[in-house]
Amino acid sequence: MGHDTQKSVLITGGAGGIGLAAAKEFARKGWRILLSDLDSERLAIAAAELRALDAEVETWVVDVTRRDAVDACAQEILARHGHLDVLINNAGVGHHGEIASTSIETWKLLIDVNLWGPLFHIYAFLPSMKARGKGQIVNVSSGQAFIKMPTWGAYAAIKAALGVASEVLHWELRKHGLRVTTVYPGMVNTGFYSDVETKTLGGKLSMLALPLYSMSPQRMGKILYRAVTRHEKVELSNLHNRFAWFTQGLPLVPDLTALVSERLFAKH
After folding, report:
1. Fewer CB within 10 A of the terminal residue: the chain, N end or C end?
2. Is residue 164 part of a domain?
3. pTM, full prediction
4. Is 223 a domain residue?
């Protein structure tokens, strides 16, 4: 079994968007970058970009919805390097649509990728982290977990579940010397939203205006890197998310947000 002193980070969904942007931040600081993604072509391109930064990069094509595939990847990483310093559960899929028109198959996909994917990785690496008494797990949820926005309910519900599990895990793993960071990104201008279909005028305008009010993946990558290296318990990422988090229990504010988004996005 190989053991070394270079710090390593595994980023799921690392072939683009926030995952790749964060990987570049770690690469610039000399970390070994372990990337997994379902898209082998984009993964190869991402690896080349990281190697141009003189990073040591290893890649795995992994379907995060398959526990056997996740376990095989984890076993190979641990066999090569002895341990994993940081696990970043970043892979995710989105969905836009009213709950009544969201198919059970879509719910299953959201649960498989956005919840089971992170859990499979946590269970795969947790025994070795606990045995070592060192390691960090980072779960990327979404600011929509605490913004009750019509037409994003299915996606938000699963991301909320991940966020709750992650924040509880922080307290449960402290006694083992492990750290858990829960990251709630806001709107980030990546390919994540390119497949969003909306038939309302407000929805179409909001997607067209996305570059104006969203965060760049590079900015979010820096925030994610900072949250990891500072061992933050929770990273809310931007002012909008902080406002939403603090006003969840206040009268009228959540209802007003829901009402406005319902008028913009829902079909009438």
Report:
1. C
2. yes
3. 0.86
4. yes
| Domain count of the fold of the chain | 1
Long-range CB contacts (within 8 A, 24+) of 238-247? 238/143, 238/186, 240/143, 240/186, 241/143, 241/146, 241/184, 241/186, 244/143, 244/146, 244/147, 245/146, 245/184
The reported pLDDT for the residue numbered 151 is: 87
Question: Which structural domain range is residue 26 located in?
Answer: 8-265
Mean pLDDT by 10 residues, the chain (268 residues): 75 97 97 98 98 97 98 98 98 93 98 98 98 98 88 94 98 98 82 50 44 75 96 90 75 63 56
Q: Is residue 3 part of a domain?
A: no
Is residue 59 domain-resident?
yes
Task: List C-alpha distances in Å: 124 to 84, 130, 257.
Answer: 11, 11, 39
- pLDDT for 149: 83
Cα–Cα dist 198/87, whole Å: 34
Is 123 catalytic? The answer is: no
The residue among 10, 150, 26, 145 whose CA lies nearest residue 88 is 10
Tell me the C-alpha distance between 18 and 140, whole Å: 10
Please report, for the domain that includes residue 54, its CATH number. 3.40.50.720
